Amino acid sequence: MTATTSTTTTSPAPRRSHPARLPGTLALGVERARYELRVFFRERDAVVFIFAYPVIMMAIFAAVFGQDGATVQAGGVDIPFAQYFLPGMIATGVVLSSFQSLAISISVERDEGGLKRLRGTPLPAAAYFLGKIGQVLGTQLVQTTILLAVAVALFDVTLPDTAGDWLTFAWVYLLGTAAGAVCGVAFSSVPRSGRSASAVVTPIVLVLQFISGVFFQWDSLPGWMQQVASVFPLRWLVEGMQAVFLPEAVAGDAELVTTAAVLTAWLVVGLVVGVRFFRWRRRDDG
């Protein structure tokens, strides 16, 4: 008689599935920056305006005022017009790529409901803003490289040849970009709709260019205009860039300490106002 032994096989208990961890805020910000850059370069009108505007304006002013070798008299030094206008054009490019670009694009995204939908995703708000800053830095580097290349190749502009000048350029450039970006984010809540954003933002930038010594020699502007311009960051961006690209006899007295103080102050103001008043929804959406 044979005994039959039955063996019962017990299946292992199923493992608990853990939800996938999201990447960190910095990693998400880098990916968001890549996305923002792709979207930016698809908008051909914005690309042409932001990249070409400083180059075109410098070419126009250098050609009109620099005919027959005419120069700018500043600090007892004769400076070619292209050399004199270059610092203002770089400063203008920073404002266009940071303040104007963000103030308009974020207003449009809000008006179209993009910010509201984005707010409902797991993406941290900080990653969204890091992506915007990454987009600004990427576009500005391309814009500035094009401007400097054209200035050297077509207008015989002399670039700085000391490490100290380039170090000054770097911190003025980055601090000006940061201030412009946070102010653009904060100001994006001012236009009532995306359609009105350009009409609200663009005239402000144009007026600041005319009163900040971008298109005209600073000493030739009325005193009251200089006082108004000195309140805003564009004037000090121009001042900082002049310390880099103009002869020491002209820009040696550039108030770099004041430049740093004013740009930092606007950075702080932009952060405070942005945190307090930034809106993810349209005004009529609760």
UniProtKB/TrEMBL annotation:
Belongs to the ABC-2 integral membrane protein family. This is Transport permease protein. It is a multi-pass membrane protein. Residues 45-281 form the ABC transmembrane type-2 domain. Pfam families: ABC2_membrane. Keywords: Antibiotic resistance, Cell membrane, Membrane, Transmembrane, Transmembrane helix, Transport. Residues 1-14 have a biased composition (Low complexity). The chain crosses the membrane at residues 46-65, 85-108, 129-154, 166-187, 199-218, 256-278. Residues 1-21 are annotated as: Disordered. GO terms for molecular function: ABC-type transporter activity. The keyword Ribosomal protein does not apply. It is found in: Cell membrane; Membrane. One of its GO terms (cellular component) is ATP-binding cassette (ABC) transporter complex. GO terms for biological process: response to antibiotic. InterPro entries: ABC2_TM, ABC2_TM_bact-type, ABC_2_transport, Nod_factor_ABC_transporter.
